[in-house]
Each structure stands twice: as C-alpha cells, then as structure tokens.
Amino acid sequence: MKKPYTVIAWITSLIILYALVNNYLIDPEAKAFLSHKIGLKRELIVPVWLKVMHVHVAFACIAMAAGLLNFSNRIFEKSRKFHRINGYIYFMSVLLVVLTSGYMAPYATGGKISSMGFNALNIIWLFVTITALVQIKRRRIVQHRNWMLRSYAFCFTNMLIHLITTLCHQGFGMDYAASYTISIYGSIGLLLIVPSFIIKSGKRS
Hints:
Elements: H1 2-26, H2 31-34, H3 46-70, H4 73-78, H5 80-104, H6 112-137, H7 141-153, H8 157-171, H9 176-204
Helix pairs in contact: 1-3, 3-5, 5-6, 6-7, 6-9, 7-9, 8-9
C-alpha cells in the first residue's frame, strides 16, 4: 500500500501545484478557458465568475490535499484527532467546491447538456461524501474508507475533463464544445467505475 500511496501523493501534489500556478499566476483571468465560452444564453459577468472560479479552485486544492492526508495510515495511527478534524475540512471543502460549481454550471462550455452534466457530478459527489460521513458516524470503518475512496476520486474531475477534452478535440479533431460535453459524461462514468473496481480488487486480495 505504501508504494501506490506515494505515487498518488506525487501525482496529487503536481496537480495541485499546476492548478495554483495556472489559475493564480499564469492565467488569473482565465482568458484561455473563457475563449471557448461562445453562444452563452446567459450573460456572463466575468469579474463575478472569476472570483467564484478562484474560490472553486482554492477549495478543490484543499480537498485534494486533505483527502490525501487522510488516506495515510501513518498519519491516522499517529493522530486520530487530526484525521477527524482534517476529515471535516475535506467535507467543508467539497461542499464549497460543489456550491461554486453549481454557480458556474449554467455557463458551462457546451450549453445546457454540459450544465446538466456538471449538476449531476455535483449531486453524486455530495451524495457519496455524505454517505462516507454517515458510515463513520455509525463506526463502519471499512464502509467509510470505501465511500471516501469514491468521494476522493471526484477530486480528479477537472483533470479527467481536460484529458478527455484534449483527446477528443486534438486527437480526433472533434469540435471543442462537443469534446468538452463528452468529457463531462465520460468523467462521470470513470469516476464511478474506477473506485468500485479498486474496492473489489482490494476485497479479492
């Protein structure tokens, strides 16, 4: 378990670093991302959207870091109190990510279909996270860890969306908006299937 955790820790750290540098230093006004938002049916108030987006990114990074720390057996064994407090930090961060995402969803690239996809992502993520919290309140440790694994997978939503969008747009030459829409629903499928596969594999081993 130590080696996979180390690999995930490095990947997560790089993702957090990239997100912070890209969104707060390289392109704080999100010009590259906003350039794809054409034909919106709602008026996009850019200054407000940017503030919400920056809050969204900040708490997404906090959720990734907090979740990573709470999967560490070493930290858990040293301080159960830290694990518990950090768990609540993760939960509150997820809640704020979901709320800010809910604000940005109507302005999603690809229109209403993309917006519906993001709303579905938010509902599923919140559901699995609350389920994980309920399980630990009932002292079901294994179930709690499994549901936390499902929840934590959603921290990689943005990464998956960008990867699938790039594959469809640059790899297969599809329209960017269509590629983005496909990436949202493709991410939902992967985020539900992969954690379940990992949990089943863990049970067999």
